[in-house]
Structure formats: C-alpha cells, structure tokens
Amino acid sequence: MENSDNRVFLTECPRDAMQGIKEWIDTDVKAGYINTLLNCGFDTLDFGSFVSPKAIPQMQDTREVLSKLDLSATSTKLLAIVANERGAEEAVQYDEITYLGYPFSISETFQQRNTNASIEDSLKRVEHIQNECIKADKSLVLYISMGFGNPYGDAWSPELVMEWSHKLNDLFRIKHLALSDTIGAANPELVRSLFSTIIPELPEVTFGAHLHTVRDGAYALTQAAYEAGCRRFDGAIKGYGGCPMAKDELTGNMPTELMLDYFKDHDIQTGIDLKQFTESMMASSAVFH
Fold it and tell me: Which domains, from first to last, does the chain contain?
C-alpha cells in the first residue's frame, strides 16, 4: 500500500452497493459484474462478506461468487468484510483474499446494531481477527465506523477519532484504517481537518476515506480528503448502496465516477482503465434496477 504525491489507490465496493438490496441478485449476475470490475485497474475490490445470512441475506453466496471470479489477468486485490471471529476464520482460508475488513464503530449504538457486540467485545474480536490475519499472511483493514459523527446521540469528536486510531494501532499494530462516514455526516471542512491532523500523527498507518454522500457533495469531499493527504479512497459506481444497519434511510456510497472526475481534472494517477470502467458502468444496470 505505497503512497506517492500524485497517485491514489481506489477500492470499488460492489459488496457495499449490493448488501442492502432486498430483491435477490443471482450469483452469476454478481460474479459477472465483479469480473468486469476486475478489468478496470482498481487497487482493491470489496467483493463480499462472511457474515450471518440472517443479518445480510444478500451476501450469503459470497463463497460461490468467489469461485466464479476470474483472477488470472488482474492485479486487483480482494477484500472481504467479516463481523466476528467465525467469519474471519472462514475468510482467511481463501488464498484469493488479501484483506479482511472489520467495521469498528466508535459509536456504541452502531457497534451493537452492526455487529451485535459492544465496543469492548469488538476489541476482543479485533485481536482475534488480527491474529488470524497474521497467521494467514493477510492484512486487516479496520473501518472506523461513524468516523464523522453519528445520529444516535453517542459521544463524538475529532479527538475521539484520534484517540481510537492511536489505541487500535498501539494495541494491535493495525496498519490500515479507513475513516468511514456511513451516514453522510461528513463535510469538506471536517474531512480536511481530520485527515490533515491524523495522517501526520500516525505515519506508519495507511489511512483511507470511506465516505457516503449525495452526488452534489462528492467532488468537494474528494478534494478535501486528497488535499489533506489521504491517498486511499473507497467508492461505488453511481453511488449505489449504503449501510442497512445505520439508519432507516440510506445515504449512498461515494460515486466512483465523480471521484474519477476530480482525479482526472487534477492530473492525479488512479491506475483506472477508463474504457473498461465505462463498460462496468454500463454493466451495473443489470445488477441495480
């Protein structure tokens, strides 16, 4: 996960885009769409999750989807989300998976809603998952959920985000932290302030931006994160998706195409094949109606 001044590393999140859709998406349709994304040049694909089918029914075929992916001609790495120890123990069995992602919320309410665990219990899970990753030569990406505020009245401040980032790194040597908006609470000033403060304080950690936004806010949020030193960005084509555990009304993901507009306008290298990306944009209509 190298950084350079004029290069960003993009993670496309079809898992995040699909997970909240109640109508079943056929396994072959999912795999076909993800295979188009594998041709685009993304650094990473957040492709699926090893979680309870009761919690996220749409992701119960992640194993089957993985078996149908053509990884022969791509350098794109795969990331799978896990919510507990059992999911991690299964995910690490797959050689094709490079990263395990775990949503660690600094909001007690959301941690309970999202993973059915307290923050204290979640710390124990992180320790177990990190140990599993180390044994299997994989990397853990921790998503700092509700990283820009929460709708529940739980305590939140930039200082709290900083405190947890330091603590997670100190306790478990977590090297990949993604500040996650989840509900569209971020604004450019907050994004700029948080990343510009936290990145110099923890130079050994790679920070990413997992933002949820309405389309009109995408360009300014991307600019704020980039100018503050962030070089890893998550998105989903056309802004599809959102977290079904966050609140009743979903705020969509950061639209990848709008991030690409910003990077193109400023001559920032993404590694994305824009022709292939356009084909994936067209293919998305078969998945998301």
Answer: 9-286 (3.20.20.70)
